[in-house]
Every structure is written in structure tokens, then in C-alpha cells.
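## retry 2 of 3
previous attempt timed out at serialization; input unchanged, resubmitting
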Amino acid sequence: MNSSKDQAVEDITLLELEHPGANDPAYRRRRAAIAAHAATFRSTGEIADVEYSPEETETWRTAVSRLQEIHAAKASGRYLRAAKNLSITPERIPQLSELNAQLAAAGGFRLAPVEGLIDGKTFLSKLANGTMLCTQYIRHASRPEYTPEPDVIHELVGHAPTFTDPDFAAMTRLIGRAADSAEGDALEAIKRLYWFTVEFGLIREQGEIKAFGAGLLSSFGELGHCFTSEVERREFTAADAGAPAFDYSAMQPTLFVIPSFAALRRSVDGFVRGLGIDA
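## retry succeeded, writing output
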């Protein structure tokens, strides 16, 4: 694969003061070194594996073990089966390249490295061709339960398994195609729709509400919070989910419950067409 156009990513060396690794020079250097693989990928098309350190593997083990305990009761059954099939376990951090081989067989999605946060249109547009941009570095060891930004736990535990579902994968590609064509208010509506489905979606399974969004499944706090009385859980319509603003830095006060991935796909298709976007 040839190199893609330049991507607008944030400076990987800059961390906000509240970031657990902000005052840890060794962590910052390591994070930057892993993030540099993304630039190599854009030049060569080859995904470099990361040789994770024992400390990084222990952070993964601690976080994933605790998350999986909560997943057993709170996560969608379809997600749980997919995670098992992808061999997402606490023992080791999977490489993007090995997961890509499994995802290709399941429906054609692939993971590609990115340095860090990227502008929403570029990120979403990549989904059109079945590419999910992923960070490869891991959160700071002092806070295995917390990260203020996407990390390899968020990407691989939260996102990767759900791409094996054909309806979910098709819906995500549709959002990507719509984002690639949209501008202005239409683009903002698509970003919100992505946020309240792929990142923070709930699903009703056998009469119970379960989590399938990556932002829920990779966060101790959000996964516990989303089932409390502090959260309004509304029946999903794409129009409603594409309307409210959201705050990255706060617990979500409103979430939407889909009846199925197939219904979600149909609803998103109708919503996109209603925006006048040919996706």
C-alpha cells in the first residue's frame, strides 16, 4: 500500500497536566517511540509490531482482567463471543497485524496505526474502506483503570471485537462514507451519531440492556456509570442520537439503546439518506 495523505494528529510529545504520564519523562519517550510506528506505516504500508515491556504487559493484564470481570455481567453477548474468538485475553497485548488476519476473515475490517488523536473527518472517513485508525501505546502504569485518550486497551478491547459482526461492520462503513462526503452541520450530526453508537452504544438482548460501545467497554468508570440512575437510557433513533452534543471529558448523561445491530444499520442508512448524502 502506498502512503496516504498527511493526517492532522496532535503533537504526541504534548500531554495535559492531568494526564497520569505528564510528569514521567520515560513514559513520554516510550509513548512517542511507539507512536512513531504510525509515520512508518504511512510511508511503507507495513505495520510494525511493538515489543511491549513487562511493565506495559502488566498494565494490560491488570486493566483487561478487571474489565473482563465487569464485561461478564454488563457486555453484549455478541461482543463477548467476538472477543473470545479474537483471543483478547489478559495474558498478552495482541499485535495489530495478527488481529488484522482474523478480522479479514470475519468481514474485512483492518486496524492501522495512528500517532494519537486525529481530526474527526479524517478518522471517520477511513472507516468507509474498513480501516480503523488505532493507537498502539498503553496508558500509564500508575492508573491502569484510566486513560484520558485512546490507547491500545481502548482500541483492542473496546473496538476490535465488534468489527467481526457483519451488520455492525456495514453500519460503521456507512458512517465512514457519509463522513467523507459531509461538511458543516451534516458532518457534526454524523460525528454525534458515531459517538452514541460505536463509542457509547447500548443494546437490548433478551430483555436486558447491555453495552457494546468501545468507550463503555474499555472504561471502568463509564461501564459502571451507564447502568445507574444518573444516566437517561433512551430508545435509539438515529435522528435523536445525531442531535445532542457530547462532552469527551465528562461521564455521559444520556445514552441510546438499540434493538439489534441489523436495526441500527437500517436506521443509520435512513438517517444518512435524510441528510441528502449519497453513501
